Write a sequence for this structure.
């Protein structure tokens, strides 16, 4: 296969001291995309040259980052219907080699434990209290109050492993579990806070969503009412706009995950990551036409 011959020849030229040669080689390798990663990793393992290893790392990262951009764009243009899928694409930014099936299996396992306790005659509040019991008491999930600005709080694989997350990552896990159990729990994009709403099913047909009650996934699934949202907005001196009370789109949620990461990496002075995350944010700037 001539591709393998060309790729091998290109990889051998990666340590060329001439910058122009290197940039030409880099451009050609980037055009191959994910197909060259295996060859690059082999070359990295066999090399003791620091410059060559650094160049390989940069190219591999660029290929993986391009894939994240393409995947996010496709998710967005397809209507952004699957929130978990969107969150896993962002996860790939930091953990490109992650086995995503592990995330799905972990969520399915928690879902199964909730499902075993669900009974038909339960009220909406009782169902939410069951989710709370399984998620926070049985599995030990909770808000990361000690290290709230850690970027790891935004990556699902880390949150599922450490059982600690920020408002939005815990809300994504919570609403994903609820929706898999046919419970109408959706994200609500409050300023400086992210909460969930349990929707009145009878009102879901029209555009005027009616929220039965609100849930704080960061605070062990605490249930509260509209007057608490009113009070929160008054404390912030904000006008009570309709969008602060009703479900937001999956695009809004993923946009907010990216904003949290930008803020976390700005705190850590990781300028390259901030630049890349701004590129991801630009992909989903406006609502897709299919939404």
């Amino acid at each position: 296969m001539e591709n393998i011959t060309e790729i091998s020849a290109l990889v051998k030229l990666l340590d060329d001291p001439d910058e122009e040669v290197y940039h030409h080689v880099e451009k050609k390798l980037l055009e191959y995309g994910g197909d060259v990663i295996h060859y690059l990793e082999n070359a990295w393992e066999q090399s003791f040259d620091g410059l060559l290893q650094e160049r390989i790392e940069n190219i591999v990262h660029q290929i993986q980052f391009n894939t994240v951009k393409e995947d996010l764009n496709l998710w967005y243009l397809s209507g952004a219907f699957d929130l978990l899928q969107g969150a896993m694409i962002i996860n790939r930014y930091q953990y490109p080699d992650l086995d995503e099936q592990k995330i799905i299996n972990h969520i399915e396992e928690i879902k199964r434990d909730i499902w075993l306790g669900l009974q038909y005659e339960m009220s909406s509040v009782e169902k939410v209290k069951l989710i709370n019991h399984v998620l926070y008491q049985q599995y030990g999930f909770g808000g990361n109050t000690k290290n709230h600005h850690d970027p790891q709080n935004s990556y699902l694989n880390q949150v599922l492993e450490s059982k600690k997350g920020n408002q939005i990552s815990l809300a994504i896990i919570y609403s994903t579990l609820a929706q898999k159990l046919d419970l109408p729990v959706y994200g609500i994009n409050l300023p400086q806070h992210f909460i969930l709403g349990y929707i009145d099913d009878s009102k879901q047909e029209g555009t005027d969503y009616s929220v039965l009650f609100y849930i704080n996934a960061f605070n062990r699934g605490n249930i509260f009412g509209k007057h608490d949202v009113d009070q929160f907005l008054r404390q912030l001196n904000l006008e009570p706009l309709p969008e602060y009370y009703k479900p937001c789109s999956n695009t809004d949620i993923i946009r907010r995950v990216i904003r949290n990461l930008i803020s976390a990496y700005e705190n850590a002075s990781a300028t390259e990551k901030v630049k890349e995350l701004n590129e991801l944010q630009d992909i989903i700037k406006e609502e897709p036409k299919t939404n």
